[in-house]
Design a protein that fits this description.
Elements lengths: L2 H26 L6 H9 L12 H20 L1 E8 L5 H9 L16 E5 L7 E3 L4 H15 L3 H7 L4 H12 L6 E3 L1 H21 L16 E4 L13 E6 L11 H10 L3 E7 L6 H12 L6 E6 L11 H12 L9 E3 L2 H17 L9 H11 L11 H15 L2 H13 L1 H29 L5 H58 L2 H8 L10 E4 L2 E4 L2 H62 L20 H6 L15 H11 L7 H4 E3 L3 E4 H60 L3 H40 L1
Parallel strand pairs: 1-6, 1-7, 2-5, 7-8, 8-9
Antiparallel strand pairs: 2-6, 3-4, 3-5, 10-11, 11-13, 12-13
Helix pairs in contact: 1-3, 1-16, 1-24, 2-23, 3-16, 4-12, 12-13, 12-14, 13-14, 16-24, 17-19, 17-23, 19-21
Protein name: Dynamin-type G domain-containing protein
Keywords: Coiled coil
Organism: Enterobacter sp. (strain 638)
Length: 784
């Protein structure tokens, strides 16, 4: 590592950050439009659109972001933000990366506050530091007062009170404060559990949880522990820190989405934990939107967790990478930065190897549940207690489980690299943030400065024309909505025709399977002699041998399964293609409809002496990508194998039952075990046909619902962003007009201040580009 060069680059980054902060402070003294209230008034949208960079709130956000980068630069800290939904296995993934259990796992949201996990060489036992605990202590006093006058029975009706919540209620009633330090896994677990339960309790009692007190990254809890995978490695400049972020809407707190976006924007890189079984769910979509929003300035990586649940019909590693990179993330992440893994297997394997290395054996499985989970994963469901005593066998099983988890690749390619190059990641993060700031500042300041040089009447005229353009935008929105509705209607009609055609083809294939001659062929019965141990009459097949009856049923089930698997592939490919085309068509329609307004505004402002830059939003409707395979799998229903069924048949039965959305679908009714064995083939065929009809109808209904939601949301965001852009231009012109209405001295003073700020922003931009290039050169040198 080029130690001296890193030191010099960090000093330069620190200088530029200080300069940018001083420039922002100067901007705060200028008259700035109150965009927060204007946005809501004009567009009716306040949550889905980011604040303008130089609104009142926007300036404060930028100050906070730059101060955070300054803090990271002084420590040369690389912050890898971990983001994912509650069920994606985020905590398990963090435990797998660290190599031991530092975060608790419960089947409920477990990240009320962001938490940092910092690699600290030599710190074998984790320690949690919670210096900024005073807002929590204040909250406990408020809750204590509430509980004094609150009926415990009513609270029980609104809140699940388990032993953890009971313990927390006792602490609150006694007025016990949170500690500032917790040593050891169990005390840390209890602290984090209590914080999360405080969120739920506050919500139930109508008391605001102090989330805003923890927006600054230096105020959140920090766990220091040595990462097992990095133990013994050569020391490097800089620090590697994981940031456990709250998922969107976690714990029923919608404003956590804003906290998530802010934390991601302040990180050095982002690692998304995705659920392999729910890749195209609505909750997973929220995570993808959050990380896509920061994808241009922050490197993105993804772990596709629960890959151990892949079966022979599921997408393989390459298919998953291609789907996430292209279809789901729209090219914002490369396939090489996507890793299908099993975090649970990785965590269990690590934990077992750690225990054997330190204690010579595993703990008692009856005292620590994870040992049972490990044994089942590594040794199989029929493991015995005696197996755990064979240490060499257990060590080998743990190594194999680690290998099967596929976690070695992300550890080597991501975690090792992040640790070795932590200082470079911190520097690159700072350079990207500085470049974004400088570019936005120059554009805003140029526009404000131009407003002081054009004629007074030109300002008034352009403000008036912008009002007309905003009215025109509303009219065009109504027209475009009708056009988009027509496109969607046509696409859905075509999809319904296609689904109907596929349903008919499935029914024909199934009818062939249940054809009388085919049934006899499957049973191996001579058509010319049905009396020899078998009868086939009135849609029933009667056999004297139970084993033969089971074999016939198995063949029928296998034939149906092949037909349905083939149909699944066709429907999935065709509908995905159709709605990718629809998304492109809608984006083109919106852009064509709005381009005349965009062109007119630029021409008008240019004529008046302005150089306006209008950021034209892109229509994003990625929720149009639906999971056809998921529509099949959502109907999964497990059933117990009836007595007498041959081995292996139940798995086939479950597969076909899931496809037909009916657990069992009457197999038991079709085989009657007496002295003879009767298969009611006609009844079985009728039931399958009915369920195929229902299934195809469900596909279309789900499709209509998803398209409606995604198109509505996508258009609302598109027009809200465009309206916000116009409003920003209008407010900047009004600011200029207000200044021009003052005396000449005020105008001259503001003009000088703007010129100074423009010059400073230009210097920052030019120097930061040089800094970024030097950092990229070092990155390239380290990778060779």
């Amino acid at each position: 590592m080029h130690t001296q060069t890193i030191f010099e680059l960090s000093q330069e980054a620190e200088r530029l950050l200080q300069l940018a902060l001083q420039n922002l402070d100067a901007l705060k003294s200028m008259p700035i439009a109150a965009m927060d209230s204007t946005t809501a008034a004009i567009t009716g949208v306040s949550n889905n659109v980011l604040p303008l960079h130089f609104s009142t709130r926007g300036v404060e956000t930028q100050l906070s972001m730059l101060n955070n980068e300054l803090r990271k630069i002084t420590r040369l800290e690389m912050v890898l933000a971990i983001v994912g939904t509650m069920k994606a296995g985020k905590s398990t993934t963090i435990n797998a990366i660290v190599g031991t259990e530092v975060l608790p796992n419960r089947n409920r949201p477990m990240t009320a506050l962001p938490t940092m996990i910092r690699h600290t060489p030599g710190q074998k036992e984790p320690v949690l530091h919670f210096a900024h605990v005073s807002p929590i202590d204040t909250l406990i006093k408020q809750l204590q007062e509430k509980l004094c006058n609150h009926d415990r029975g009513k609270l029980t009706q609104r809140l699940e009170i388990d032993k953890d919540m009971n313990a927390l209620l006792g602490r609150i009633e006694q007025g016990q404060a949170f500690e500032k330090h917790y040593l050891g896994a169990e005390p840390i677990f209890q602290c984090l559990k209590s914080l999360n339960d405080l969120v739920r309790l506050s919500q139930a009692l109508g008391v605001d949880f102090p989330f805003t007190e923890y927006t600054a990254i230096e105020h959140i809890p920090v766990i220091e522990v040595e990462f097992v995978h990095l133990a013994g490695m050569d020391s490097h400049l800089g620090q590697l820190t994981l940031l456990d972020t709250p998922g969107p809407n976690e714990a029923g707190q919608p404003h956590l989405q804003k906290m998530l976006n802010e934390q991601l924007a302040r990180s050095s890189a982002v690692l998304a934990v995705m659920d392999y079984t729910q890749l195209k769910s609505i909750s997973d979509e929220e995570v993808r939107q959050a990380i896509s929003a920061v994808g241009k300035s922050v490197p993105l990586y993804a772990l596709v967790n629960k890959f151990d649940q892949k079966d022979r019909n599921s997408d393989d590693e390459e298919q998953v990478r291609a789907m996430i990179s292209g279809t789901l993330m729209k090219g914002n992440i490369s396939p090489g930065q996507i890793y299908p893994v099993s975090s649970m297997w990785a965590y269990l394997a690590n934990r077992a190897r750690f225990e054997i290395a330190n204690n010579g054996r595993l703990p008692d499985h009856q005292e620590q549940r994870w040992v049972q989970d490990f044994a089942e994963a590594a040794l199989g469901r029929r493991w015995r207690t005696a197996d755990l005593d064979d240490v060499e066998h257990i060590r080998h099983a743990a190594d194999l489980l680690w290998e099967d988890s596929l976690f070695e690749q992300p550890i080597r390619k991501l975690i090792y690299a992040a640790y070795a190059n932590a200082s470079l990641y911190a520097l690159r993060s700072a350079s990207h943030k500085l470049l974004n700031y400088a570019q936005n500042a120059r554009e805003y300041l140029d526009f404000r400065y131009q407003g002081l040089t054009v004629a007074f009447d030109e300002l008034e005229l352009n403000i008036s024309r912008l009002e007309e353009d905003m009215a025109l935008l509303q009219m065009r929105q109504d027209v475009v909505s009708d056009e988009v509705g027509h496109e969607v209607e046509q696409a859905l009609d075509a999809a319904q025709t296609f689904i109907t055609h596929q349903k008919n083809q499935i029914q024909q294939a199934i009818s062939h399977i249940f054809d009388g001659d085919n049934i006899l062929d499957l049973a191996g019965i001579d058509r010319m002699n049905l009396r020899n141990g078998a009868q086939h009459d009135m849609g029933q097949l009667v056999l004297d041998d139970e084993g033969q009856a089971q074999i016939v049923l198995s063949k029928i089930r296998s034939s149906c399964e092949l037909v349905m698997l083939d149909a699944q592939g066709k429907i999935s490919r065709e509908l995905a293609l159709r709605f990718d085309q629809l998304e492109s068509t809608l984006a083109r329609s919106l852009n064509e409809a709005m381009r005349p307004i965009e062109k007119r505004i630029k021409e008008e402002l240019s004529h008046a002496g302005f150089r306006a830059r209008i950021s034209f939003p892109a229509f994003q409707a990625s929720q149009l990508n639906f999971n056809t395979r998921g529509l099949f799998n959502d109907a999964i229903a497990s059933e117990n194998r009836p007595a007498g069924e041959i081995s292996g048949s139940s798995s086939v039965r479950e597969t076909v039952s899931r496809w037909l959305n009916n657990p069992g679908w009457g197999w038991e009714d079709c085989v009657v075990t007496r002295t003879r064995y009767v298969i009611d083939v006609a009844q079985l065929h009728t039931r399958i046909k009915e369920h195929i009809d229902q299934f195809c109808e469900q596909i279309y209904k789900a499709l209509v619902a998803q398209v409606d939601v995604s198109v509505t949301a996508g258009m609302a965001t598109f027009f809200a962003e465009f309206s916000l852009c116009l409003t920003g231009l209008q407010e900047s012109l009004r600011d200029s007009l207000a200044v021009r209405q003052q005396n000449e001295h005020s105008t001259r003073a503001l003009s000088q201040l703007l010129q100074q700020c423009i010059t400073t922003a230009t210097w920052i931009q030019e120097d930061t580009r040089l800094l970024r290039d030097d950092i990229q050169t070092l990155f390239a040198a380290e990778q060779t």
